[in-house]
Amino acid sequence: MQNNFEKNNYHNHQPNFFQLRFSDKVFNQFSRFIYEQMGIHLSHSKKVMLQSRLTKRLRKLKINSFEEYFAYVTSDTGIAQEMPNLINAVTTNKTDFFREPKHFEFLCNIVLPEFYESCKGRKFKIWSAGCSTGAEPYTMAMLLEEFSVKHTGFRYAILSTDISTEVLDIARKGIYTHEMAQSIPTTLRKKYVLKKMGDDKRPLIQIVPELRQKIKFKQINLMDRTYSTITDIDAIFCRNVFIYFNRKTQERVIRQLCHHLKPQGYFFMGHSETIYMKNAPIKSVATTIYQKK
Ligand SMILES: C[S@@+](CC[C@H](N)C(=O)[O-])C[C@H]1O[C@@H](n2cnc3c(N)ncnc32)[C@H](O)[C@@H]1O
After folding, report:
1. Does 101-175+209-292 carry CATH code 3.40.50.150?
2. Most buried residue among 32, 143, 146, 180 by CB atoms closer than 10 A?
3. pLDDT digit string (tens) for 139-148?
4. Does the CB atom of residue 134 touch ligand 1 within 6 A?
C-alpha cells in the first residue's frame, strides 16, 4: 500500500524531494559558485548539510532538481532574486553576547583609554564585520555606552555588517532568547535589556531602543572589491568569519579591511583563527589581537 506522500506525489506530479539526487558534479558547481561569490570554502564533508539546506529552497520554489536550481540561482534574475536565500542557506551564524571576553577586556582596558587620551573630540569608530544576529555589536554598544557615562565628551559610532540579510533583520530587532541573555553581566542586563514575551509565550529579551539606535546595520559582502566609503575606523572585530575562508581569501580580506583602519587601529580575530601572512599590514599585540603598522 502506498503512503500518503507517495500517493499525493504520484497524483499531483509534485517533485518527490526524498528522491532528489545531489551528485558530486552539481555539489562541485555550487561549491565553486559559493566560493566565488562569498569566499566560503565548502569541503566535500559539507555536502549533506548543503543538500539539506538547499532542499528547503527547492521545495519552496517547486523546482525539480538541483541542476535546475543551480541554473536559476546563477542566472541574472536568480542572482538578483535568489542570491540572498542561497547566502542565508550557506552561512553559519553562531554567536553570543560577550563571546571571547578577553577581546572586550582589551577594548575597555587598553583601546578605549588610549583613544580617549588622544582623541581631541573625535568620535570612536568601531566595526563588527560579520556581525551575525547582533550579539557582538550589542556587546560593544553596552561597553561603549558605559565608557561614555564615565568619560565626558566620549562619543562613538558602531557599524555592523554581514553578508546575510536574514541575520541583519534579526540584529536590527535586537530580540533574543532568554537563555542567550545569560552571558550578559547582571548590571548591564538590568540597564540595557527588556523582558519580552514571544507569541508562543516563550520568555524573550529585547535590547533597549536607545542602544539599538546607536548601531548602523548594513549588508556588506567581504568578498566585494571595495567596502564603500567607510574610513578611519579605530577598531575592527572580524571574528569567526575567516574560518570559512581559505588562506588566499583570508589574506585578501585582511588587507582590504586594513585599508579602512586608521594608523595604529586595532584588528580582532576569533580565538581559533590565526594568520600567517607575508608582509601583513598588521602586527600582533596580544592573542588574536593585531594593530595596524
Ligand atoms: C559564526 S558568525 C560570527 C559572528 C560574530 N562575529 C561572532 O564572532 O560571534 C560568521 C558570520 O560571518 C558572515 N559571513 C560569512 N561570509 C561572509 C562574507 N563573505 N561577507 C560578510 N559576512 C560573511 C556569516 O553570515 C555569519 O553571520
Report:
1. yes
2. 143
3. 999 999 999 9
4. no
Architecture of domain 4-90: Orthogonal Bundle (1.10)
Question: Can you tell me the distance from the alpha carbon of 218 to that of 226, in angstroms, rounded to the nearest whole number?
Answer: 14
With a 6 Å cutoff on the Cβ, whether 244 touches ligand 1 is yes
- Quickly state the pLDDT bin for 29 (edges 50, 70, 90): very high
Secondary structure letter of residue 163 according to DSSP:
S
Instruction: Output the CA–CA distances (angstroms, integers) from residue 29 to 25, 34, 42, 44, 69, in the order listed.
Output: 6, 9, 11, 12, 11
Distance 161 CA to ligand 1 centre (A): 9
For residue 77, CA distances in Å to 6, 67, 74, 83, 98 come to 33, 16, 8, 9, 40
| CA of 128, closest atom in ligand 1 | 6
Query: Catalytic residues, which ones?
Result: 53, 162
267: three-class secondary structure by DSSP? strand
Q: Where are the beta strands (DSSP E) in the chain?
A: 124-129, 156-162, 175-177, 193-197, 203-207, 215-219, 233-238, 261-269, 282-286, 289-292
| Any atom of ligand 1 within 6 Å of the Cβ of 39 | yes
With a cut of 50, say whether residue 3 has pLDDT above it: no
The structural domains of the chain, with segments of one domain joined by +, span: 4-90, 101-175+209-292
What's residue 238's pLDDT? 98
Give the distance (Å) from ligand 1 centre to CA of residue 9: 38
